[in-house]
Amino acid sequence: MIKYISTKGGISPVSFDDAVLQGIAADGGLFVPEIIPTITTEQLHEWSTLDYSSLAYEVLSLFIDRQIISSDDLKTLIADSFADFDHPDLIPLVTPYDNSRLHIMELFHGPTLSFKDIAMGFLVRTMDYLLQKRNQRINLILATTGDTGPAAANASAGRKTLTCWPLFPAGMISVEQEQQMTTLQDENIHPIAVSECLEGVDDLDVVIARLFSDTKRKEKLKLSSVNSINWCRVMVQTVHYIYGYFKACKNVGAPVAFSVPSGALGNLCAGNLAQKMGLPISTCICANNQNQTLHTAFSTGVFKKCELVQTVSSAIDIVLPYNFWRFLFFNNNYDSAKITSMMKTFDDSGEVQLDSKTFEDIRHSITSIAISDERTLHTIRESYDKYGYLLDPHGAVAVAAAKILQPTLGKDTPIVCLATAHPAKFPEVIRKALGDSKELPAQGKHKALEDAKLLPEKKLTCTVSELENFLSHHIKNSLFA
Ligand SMILES: *Cc1c(COP(=O)(O)O)cnc(C)c1O
How far from each other are the two terminal CA atoms of the chain, in whole angstroms? Predict the structure, then answer.
């Protein structure tokens, strides 16, 4: 039986379904599998020619017991999760530049046009599946920098087992992203625009953490989360590294690097997990924008919240990446006492220093960099003007990082840059990058977003100081009457 434990070490091991439905462990820690499964050389060869869905089935089977989700049901869940992706490869790898070792993996072909669809579709369907079996319902609360909310709302829409409460910092996400949530007419979707978020989405995470830390209230209100604190998100995200590896490697076993635009560190944590499972990734580049808490931690060993800067790559405007503790847990031999004490030092003093061994170990698998808005915009412009390939601002952060760091990687090492959103979600940034006078290129538009502009909008509003009571009140009133 595959069991899940907490990074804080304060719970007895639980099964996959409990870990997924609880979202966060009762001791406030994050769920991780008791043992990290390894990929054998034999498996690596066998898997190298699989399509994405078949590979996902193999990888997820390492983490989920058949008694909990039968193999047929797992196949169905995977197939349903990717049924409305608009590309036959689901997550195609393209090589648009004359630099033949620089690849882009397009992770934005899902229904809400960001990489969040990849894990969210599966997570929400899996929750629905498990809840139906238990005859239960839950309230999903999540904070979004613009992409998690639409992905969760879209996947939850119309499901009888779930009510979805996406919270977003008002005015800090694009109009298109907001409309993806507010134009869903389903009765189980309640987007909330929260004003006065001085630290952006991090302010919302604080309120959610407070709501969840009160175990009684969490149970009474039947709360759970699909933010990347939820183990299932990280688990599913390992698949695109393995798939991308096969698409980019010269031969199975040779190294490949990944460049990852990083916010809450869920995606990169998955890449690091794939490394630990034995995938020959030479390095994962943690690409920050000017919100560079992670770059500072990975380059100096000091983990300390940076000041929030609003950037053109707003989906990664995060000052406190909550997957950092899960990442450290993986990189400290599962030493929960150590992680708990580091968390306490951080809570008490606002910063924590990595010990030199951990710091050195991490540097073997992670490289980091912070990219300025100027460079992000330049990268979008150059990619489009020279190669006709339109990047979104987050993909541009990844490409900019890869170009700068390529000389420091192995000479023959391919780099896979993760393009995490469709450019049509950020028309203002694209205009800014290409020059305001230019008409938005066809690749910068998307019918789904155009259609949403014509629909009526529905949202609740409150200030961040009101949020905790506001949310409890609304959830109580809606509690499955
Ligand atoms: C969420 C998001 C990211 C960051 O992913 P994390 O797992 O939070 O690090 C990057 N790009 C886009 C477009 C996103 O929506």
Answer: 37
Mutation choice for ligand 1 from 105, 147, 323, CB with most ligand atoms inside 8 A: 147
Q: What is the Cα–Cα distance from 316 to 299, expressed in whole angstroms?
A: 19
The pLDDT of residue 481 is above 70: no
| Closest of 159, 150, 83 to residue 124, by C-alpha | 159
On the question of pLDDT at 5 being above 90, the answer is yes
Distance 421 CA to ligand 1 centre (A): 9
Taking only the tens place, the pLDDT of each residue in 146-185 is 999 999 999 999 999 999 999 999 999 999 999 999 999 9
Q: Answer yes or no: are the C-beta atoms of 304 and 351 closer than 8 Å.
A: yes
Q: Which of 181, 232, 292, 420 to mutate to test the pocket of ligand 1 (most atoms within 8 A of CB)?
A: 420
CA distances in angstroms from 170 to 39, 195, 289, 420, 451, listed in the order given: 43, 5, 21, 22, 22
The residue assigned the tokens 């004490």 is 341
Q: Could you report the per-residue pLDDT of 375-427, keeping only the tens digit for each? A: 999 999 999 999 999 999 999 999 999 999 999 998 899 999 999 999 999 99
- pLDDT at 437 (0 to 100): 73
Catalytic residues, which ones?
116
- Tokens at 247, concatenated: 């698409």
